C-alpha cells in the first residue's frame, strides 16, 4: 500500500513546491514564514480545490428572470433579511465558512526553493573545518545487549563453526547458533569535519530607522539564515544594534528596539571586529557580517574610520561583508556611496539598496548570488 501512495505523495509535494515558487515573492513580501522561525518545519497555505457537483431539481421553473414575483423580491432559496447571512460583529451566523488548507515543508526544502528561484550557487566553505566527534555503530563485538545482536553475523559464525567441525549437512542445512557464535553491533567514535558559519547582523536603530525599515531587515535576515543553514552544518547568529553606541543584544531586542539620536557606524564595526577576534577563529569559521542602515552617519571622519576597520579587521577574515541600505525618507543615503567608492574592486564587499518589501528578493540575490 505504501508503495502505491509514494507517487501520489511525491506529486502532492511537487504541487506544493510549485505553488511556493509561484508565490515566493508574495510570501517574502508579506513576511509569511518569519513568525515561524526556529521551527524545523514551516506551514504553507495552499489553494483548496472545490470539485464541481450536479444539483438535481425540478425542471418546471422558467428561465432566468422569468416566473412569478415582483421586482426586488428575493428568489426562492435566497436568504431573507436577517436570515442565513453573515453575522454582524457580535452576532452568531449560520453560513458555512471558507476553510484554508495548510501543509508543511522543511527549512531545507524552503532553502532549495529559494535557491532555484534566485539561481543561487552553492557556497563552498573556506578554511579548515571543525572536527566533531560522533558515535557510529560501525563494528562488531563478541559481547553486548541482545537488542544489538547482529543476526546475520551470528548465523555466519555458526555456519563457519559447523563447516569447520564437519557437522554441516547441505541436505539438511539446519544451523543452531551457540553462545560463542553470537555477535553484536558495536560503536566507535568517529571524527567528522563540519563546516560552521558565524552570521553577525548589525542594524542602525537611530530615529530615522522606523518599524517599516526594521521589518524589512527582519524578513531579509530570515531568508539569509535559511539559505546559510542549508549550506553549513552549524550556524551561529549574533546581533548588534547601534546609534551613537553599539550593543550586543538578543534577536527579540534587535528587531523591536526603538531608539533615537545620532549615528556612529564605526561603533558597530569595532564591536563586530572584537567579537570575531574573541569568538570566531577565521581558520575554523566562515564569517558573514551583515549591516543594515538607512545610510546616515555622524560625519565623514567616522565613515573613514568605518572603511579603515573594514579593510584592516573585518574583510580580510570574512567570507563576505554585506551592507544593505533600507530606504527611509529621513536618511541621506550617503553611506552606500562611500562604501561603493572605497571597495569598487573588492569582490568580498557587497552592497544592496532596499527600497521597499518588493526589493527584498533582489537584495537577497545581491548578497548570496556570489556563492562566497
Structural domain tally: 3
* Major beta sheet, strand line-up: 7-6-5-8-9-10
Q: Tally of extended strands?
A: 10
| Computed Rg | 32 Å
Query: What fraction, in percent, of the residue positions are helical?
Result: 25-40%
Category from helices, strands and their pairing: alpha/beta
Beta content comes to 15-25%
At CATH level 2, the architecture of the largest domain is: 3-Layer(aba) Sandwich
Query: How many helix segments?
Result: 10
- Measured between the Cα atoms of the first and last residue, the distance is 45 Å
Write up what this structure looks like.
The longest helix is centred in the first third of the chain and has 21 residues, at about 1-20. With about 375 residues, this protein is an alpha/beta fold. Strands 7-6-5-8-9-10 form a 6-stranded mixed beta sheet, sandwiched between helices. β9, α9 and β10 (about 350-355) form a beta-alpha-beta unit. The radius of gyration is 32 Å and the shape is flat. It is about 35% helix and about 20% strand. The protein has helices at about 1-20, 25-30, 105-120, 150-165, 210-230, 250-255, 265-280, 300-315, 335-340, 360-370, and strands at about 40-45, 100-105, 130-140, 185-195, 195-205, 235-240, 245-250, 285-295, 320-325, 350-355. The chain folds into 3 domains: about 1-50 and about 100-120; about 130-190, no CATH class; about 195-370, von Willebrand factor, type A domain (Rossmann fold, 3-Layer(aba) Sandwich), CATH 3.40.50.410. α3 (about 105-120) packs across α5 (about 210-230), α5 packs across α10 and α7 runs parallel beside α8 (about 300-315).
Amino acid at each position: 500500500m505504501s508503495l502505491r501512495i509514494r507517487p501520489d505523495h511525491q506529486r502532492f509535494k511537487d504541487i506544493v513546491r510549485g505553488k511556493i515558487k509561484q508565490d515566493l515573492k508574495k510570501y517574502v513580501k508579506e513576511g509569511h514564514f518569519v513568525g515561524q522561525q526556529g521551527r524545523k518545519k514551516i506551514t504553507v497555505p495552499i489553494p483548496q480545490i472545490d470539485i464541481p457537483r450536479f444539483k438535481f431539481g425540478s425542471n418546471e421553473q422558467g428561465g432566468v428572470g422569468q416566473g412569478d414575483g415582483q421586482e426586488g423580491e428575493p428568489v426562492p432559496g435566497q436568504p431573507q433579511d436577517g436570515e442565513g447571512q453573515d453575522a454582524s460583529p457580535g452576532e452568531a451566523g449560520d453560513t458555512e465558512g471558507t476553510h484554508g488548507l495548510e501543509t508543511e515543508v522543511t527549512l531545507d526544502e524552503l532553502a532549495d526553493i529559494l535557491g532555484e528561484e534566485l539561481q543561487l550557487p552553492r557556497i563552498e566553505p573556506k578554511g579548515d573545518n571543525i572536527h566533531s566527534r560522533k558515535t557510529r555503530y560501525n563494528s562488531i563485538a563478541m559481547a553486548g545487549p541482545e537488542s544489538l545482536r547482529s543476526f546475520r553475523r551470528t548465523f555466519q559464525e555458526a555456519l563457519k563453526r559447523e563447516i569447520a567441525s564437519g557437522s554441516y549437512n547441505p541436505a539438511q542445512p539446519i544451523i543452531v547458533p551457540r553462545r560463542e557464535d553470537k555477535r553484536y553491533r558495536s560503536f566507535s567514535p568517529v571524527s567528522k569535519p563540519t563546516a560552521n558559519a558565524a552570521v553577525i547582523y548589525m542594524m542602525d536603530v537611530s530615529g530615522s530607522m522606523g518599524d517599516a525599515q526594521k521589518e524589512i531587515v527582519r524578513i531579509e535576515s530570515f531568508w539569509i539564515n535559511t539559505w546559510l543553514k542549508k549550506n553549513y552544518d552549524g550556524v551561529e547568529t549574533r546581533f548588534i544594534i547601534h546609534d551613537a553606541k553599539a550593543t550586543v543584544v538578543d534577536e527579540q531586542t534587535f528587531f523591536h528596539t526603538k531608539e533615537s539620536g545620532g549615528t556612529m557606524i564605526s561603533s558597530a564595526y569595532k564591536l563586530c571586529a572584537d567579537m570575531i577576534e574573541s569568538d570566531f577563529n577565521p581558520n575554523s569559521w566562515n564569517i558573514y557580517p551583515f549591516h543594515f542602515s538607512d545610510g546616515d552617519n555622524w560625519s565623514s571622519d567616522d565613515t573613514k574610520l568605518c572603511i579603515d576597520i573594514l579593510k584592516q579587521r573585518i574583510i580580510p577574515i570574512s567570507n563576505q561583508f554585506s551592507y544593505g541600505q533600507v530606504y527611509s525618507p529621513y536618511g541621506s543615503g550617503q553611506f552606500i556611496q562611500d562604501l561603493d567608492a572605497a571597495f569598487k574592486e573588492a569582490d568580498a564587499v557587497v552592497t544592496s539598496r532596499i527600497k521597499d518589501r518588493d526589493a527584498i528578493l533582489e537584495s537577497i540575490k545581491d548578497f548570496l548570488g556570489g556563492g562566497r
